[in-house]
Amino acid sequence: MRAGIVGLGRMGRTHAENIVNNIPSIKLVAACSIFEEELIYAKENLLVEETYTDFESMIDNANLDLVLVVAGAEVRPSMVKYAIEKGVHTFAEKPLGLTISEIEEVVEVIEKNKDKTKFQLGFMRRFDEDYLYAKEIIDNGDIGEITYIRAYGIDPSSGLDTFVKFAKNSNSGGLYHDMSIHDIDVIRWLTGREFKRVWATGANFARPELDNVGELETGIAQAQLDNGIMVHLVAGRNAPHGYQVETEIMGTKGWLRIAPVPEKNMVTIFDNNGVKRHCSASFPERFKQAFINELSHFVKCIKENKEPKVTAYDGLIATKVALTCKKSLEENKIIEI
Q: I want to staple 174 with a disulfide (CB 3.0 to 4.6 A). Which of 24, 38, 192, 326 is the partner?
């Protein structure tokens, strides 16, 4: 299948390199970016046939079967709508937009064209083998009724300086929309329940200058689902040891912990410094196979005319919860969803 991609930052390059190196059913033939260095990278490293600086031109002229929209969240809604209406199957990274109203417009366009054009959102944890195994255990009833979930999503400290520079010039959507949205989605998926109320707080101890741009270095949210399940979310950008993603599910008959230690691999080092295990350094490393699996699933859905497992509606609901967390932080109160 002929594919194009818009946006070749860290996430875009992850998807593009996975296609070129790991997904033979997709041929990356076109790339779009407003940055010349990204287009040079696409030609020299990805060997794409065509490069564009205008998204609509790529959709109109590159004869694509599918497109990956990995540009900034502020432009994703218009890009997704244009591609879908032109009949190009579309995979988009999260979040699908920065506001509820613009995401609702995207959902409407996708629903209107769903008989001819497929869409999938990039919630890759649903395709991670560890999370899939945990869901199987939950669905089998092996840990009983879920009572409590704790989820960590913290980026490595090595990226904090870069984020501070980004935050001074761009809108991430806020910590909960940018980071916790994955935990929000995976909790909805694991439990089959919806968020009912949230209370959030946060602070900037390592980078107090983020106060001036309305961003957070570390934040938490307490939540309750519609059946009473208690939830604790921790999101941040300052994990000194590496990329920390951990999920704990407590049930009436047992507990599950997914990646309590973010181990890089199964190797333990014994030397004059003691005993140690290396950690995953980034999300492309930790979820490499999940990223491959989600795109492979999307291609299969296109070929077999099936609905992808992750929908635009999932993105809409996760954004509603994330933005409610942000509102709770700003107003310092519990908010019903």
A: 326
∠ CA 126-150-333, nearest 5°, is 110
d(CA 228, CA 256): 19
Where are the chain's structural domains? 2-117, 125-286+314-336
Residue 84's pLDDT is 98
Q: What is the pLDDT of residue 195?
A: 98
Location of structure tokens 């366009």:
109
> Parallel, antiparallel, or unpaired: how do β-strands 230-239 and 244-251 relate?
unpaired
Q: Is the pLDDT of residue 171 over 80?
A: no
Nearest to 120 by CA among 317, 297, 311, 300: 311
User: Mean pLDDT across the stretch 240-248?
Assistant: 94
Would you tell me how many other CB atoms lie within 10 Å of the CB of residue 169?
7
Strands 2-6 and 66-69: parallel
Q: Quick one: which of 238, 239, 128, 140 has its CA closest to 185?
A: 128
Task: Please give the class, per CATH, of domain 2-117.
Answer: alpha beta
Task: Give φ, ψ of 94 to 5 degrees.
Answer: -85, 160
What share of the chain in percent tops pLDDT 90? Answer: 91
Other beta carbons less than 10 A from residue 28's beta carbon: 22
87-133 per-position pLDDT tens digit: 999 999 999 999 999 999 999 999 999 999 999 999 999 999 999 99
Instruction: Give dist(CA 181, CA 94) in Å, integer.
Output: 8
Q: 271 Cβ partners below 8 Å, 6+ apart?
A: none
CATH fold label, 125-286+314-336: Dihydrodipicolinate Reductase; domain 2 (3.30.360)
Q: What distances in angstroms separate CA 88 from CA 27, 69, 188, 289, 308, one per listed residue? A: 15, 11, 29, 25, 15
